[in-house]
Structures are given as C-alpha cells and as structure tokens.
Amino acid sequence: MSREPLGTSDVVVVGGGAAGLSLAYRLVETGVAAVTVVEPPDGPARPAERTWCYWDQGDGDFEEAVTATWPLLRVHGPDGDPLTVDPAPARYRMVRSAAFERLVHARLARAPGGRLLRATADTVRDVPGGAEVRCTAQDGRTLTLRSRYVFDSRPLRALPPARTQLLQHFRGWFVRTRGDRFDPAVADLMDFRVPQPRHGLAFGYVLPLAPDRALVEYTEFSRTPLTTGAYEAALGHYAREVLRLGEFGVESAEQGVIPMIDARFPRRAGSAVFRIGTAGGATRPATGYTFAAVQRHSRAIAAALHDGRATVPAPHGRRALAMDAVLLRALDTGRIDGPEFFTGLFRRTPAPRLLRFLDGATSLREEWGIGLRTPVGPMLRTALEVPFLPRRTHPAPGTGESHR
Q1: φ and ψ at 390, to 5 degrees?
Q2: Closest CA to 221 of 188, 189, 195, 199
C-alpha cells in the first residue's frame, strides 16, 4: 500500500459526529485558516442516522437542520399526573444527523481552507511542530495528514476509572398512527408510567413530529443494557398500553447506549492532540445530555484558537460535575427514588431555571435553592460519602451517541 502525504492544516478534526462537525463549524466561522474533517467512508464503520435534541433560544446557528421544535415540555409522574411547563424563551429542538452533516459539509465546502476527507483514522500522534493522523482510504491507500492541532472525537476504547457508572440505554420507534394521537406543541421528556426496573429507573420519551407521527422511545438508567427483544417488548407496552396509540406502523428505529459516569476524562492525548465529545467528557454524567455542551465547548475551543491559545477548557464546571457525582451515587444506591426525584425537580423548580441547571449554567445561589427542594437527608449522606469512594475501571458500553 502506498503512503501519501496530504499536506498540513491548521486543525484536523477526527470523527464526523455531533462533536467533530460542531467544532469544524465553529472553527470555520471564527476564521481558522485550514480545517480538515476526517469521517469514515460509507459502510459498516459509518454510524446509522441519529437524533440529537437540545434546548436553545432564538433560531440558533443550525435552524435549517432542525427537524422539529416544541415550545412546551411535559413530565408524567409515576402516579400518572402530567405536568406541562413552558421553558420560554427556550424551545426544545430536534436535529437529525443527516441534515446536520449536510449543513456542516456545505459550510466546509464554502470555506477557503475547509476540507472533508472520507477515510478511516488509524493512528493519531504528536510529531515535531504539531500532530499527525494516519488514515486508510476506501481504496486501501494509507494517507498522512499533519496539522498544528488534532481534535479527536472517536470513542475511547476503555473508560477512565470512576466511582459510579450507570448506563443510559434506549430504543426508539419513529411511528405513524392511523389517527391524530400527538400534540405537536408538547414534548414528553420523561414519562414514568412504565414498569420500573429493580435497579435504576425507566421512562418513556415522546417527540411529536406531526399529529400522527412521533419518535416514541423507551429509556433506562441502569447498569446493564437490554436485549433488542426486551426493548421491543417495553416499547410495545408503552405505545399500546400507556399511550394507547391504537393502530400504528413503525417507520424506522434507533438504539444507543450512553455512559453516565463520574470519571475524570483526559482532555489531552498529547501536546497537540485533544479529545472532544463524549471521549472528552462532554456528556453530562447525571442526565446524558451532550449536544448543548458540545456547542458551548466548540465555541470555547474556537475562540481559544482564534486568540492564539492552545488550550481546551473543560466541557463542564467542577461544581456541576460534583453535583452529578452525588446524584449518580444516590440513584445507584437506591437512596433516592429516581422517578419521584426528577418529577419533583420539574414540579418545584421554574422551567427556565431547571433547564439552565441541567445545562450547568446556574449560579451557586440557584443551585442551593434547587438542592433544598430535593431529598436533603439522602443527598447529604451521599455527598459526604462520595469523596472517599475508590475509583474503579468499568467496562465500556457498546457503541452509541447521546440523543440529547
């Protein structure tokens, strides 16, 4: 096989998921001279289409890639009572990965130094003056890219040691019903009217796309994923017995596993090699939300490089991560009831403040007020325990990317 050098870029971004494409978009927007994105070619290495959801104010940068938006959010408590909240000025938004790819690819193509390379990244390493990425093209050629910096979003082969690990695992159906069954103005974030597992928690998740179309999902926070058959059974029960959709068809399905872990993710893999996305700790440990954090992180990285600073800030603040570690431990030990806890948060906290809290954007005073509305005894006991727990290596979950 031949080895072909492909010149030097300012930045090479490895991986074309939410993190890699978002960073490439921000780098191009801030004027980084030459950006190359390395994505797997079409085939088994390329992930299936995925759904990413987040809340944002205004139209945002990716409006043309947004599939649907919802002005209202709803939570169904374990007692069946619904709670509908208005998070204005924010709205909940859905982006499908194919539309997001088209948007960013087009922006790269218009940028003077933008380039998209379809190849499999094999090795990423420091070299004098920067970093090097060796790739295998679809025709078997070995390609070498050199750049000042490399940002690598590929999944880690092993997760860093952690005190607690749960998994957010899910399967969703894109359904079409015979009649109008959905309210397109309301997204059901958590519907706890499903049987709860012995360990962890489970909920339904409904994102209407039209009165007769929606993404209907079954999600668990627990230690072990289910089989596809078990997800299908849980989804069937939720759609037929809880939502009472009547006759419907399944147009497509998606499935994933997301680590919820209080590990310290290394942001640097070399002097000029940085990790981003879930591999860089962007997934919020206690909720699995990733897309909004990726946007903030991408903006911060692009601003740093634009200003000549070769630094990558943390995706989440220390205080947010400390709170997540306590919540993960409290859920894992069963000291708090997950459905009651999350339902209580929505019932007792104004929606805009709660969404800022889930995004890690609240002040210490706001967080103190939210904390007083949670089960204080169990949470305090857990907070005193967490710093003394050993960090252990946990097995990495199967492939997946956060849908939030």
Answers
A1: -75, 150
A2: 199
Superfamily of domain 3-71+91-159+265-306: FAD/NAD(P)-binding domain (3.50.50.60)
Torsion-angle region of residue 80: left (phi > 0), alpha (psi -120 to 50) or beta?
left
What is the C-alpha separation between 261 and 327, in angstroms, rounded? Answer: 11
Place of tokens 């009649």: 179
Distance CA 237, CA 221 (A): 18
Distance CA 313, CA 317 (A): 9
Q: Check if the beta carbon of residue 395 is closer than 8 Å to that of residue 259.
A: no
Concatenating the DSSP letter of every residue in 297-346 gives HHHHHHHHHHTT------SS-HHHHHHHHHHHHHHHHTSS-HHHHHHHHH
* Cross-strand bridge partners of residue 35: 11, 114
What are the two backbone dihedrals, phi and then psi, of residue 99, each rounded to the nearest 5 degrees? -65, -40
- List the one residue out of 361, 378, 351 whose CA is nearest residue 316: 361
0.85 surpassed by pTM: yes
Unique residue bearing structure tokens 């191009």: 28
What tokens appear for 185 in the block? 């103005």
Contacts for 358-362: CB closer than 8 Å, 24+ residues apart = 358/284, 358/287, 358/289, 359/55, 359/289, 359/292, 359/293, 360/284, 360/293, 360/316, 360/317, 360/320
Q: What share of residues in the chain are helix, strand, coil (percent, to 5)? A: 30, 35, 35
* CA–CA separation, 313 and 51 (whole Å): 26
The residue written with tokens 């997760």 in the block is 159
Q: What is the pLDDT of residue 403?
A: 55
Give the integer Cα–Cα distance in Å for 195 and 198. 10
DSSP letter (8 states) at residue 162:
B
Kindly state the percentage of the chain with pLDDT values over 70: 96
pLDDT of residue 2: 39
pLDDT at residue 8, as a whole number: 64
Alpha carbons 285 and 270: distance in angstroms, whole number: 25
Does the pLDDT of residue 400 top 70, yes or no?
no
Angstrom distance (rounded) from CA 26 to CA 299: 6
Task: For tokens 């006991």, name the residue.
Answer: 381
- pLDDT tier at 357 (50, 70, 90 boundaries)? confident
Residues shown for the chain? 404
Report the relative pairing of strands 142-152 and 273-275 from DSSP bridges. Answer: parallel
Sorted by where each begins, the domain ranges of the chain are 3-71+91-159+265-306
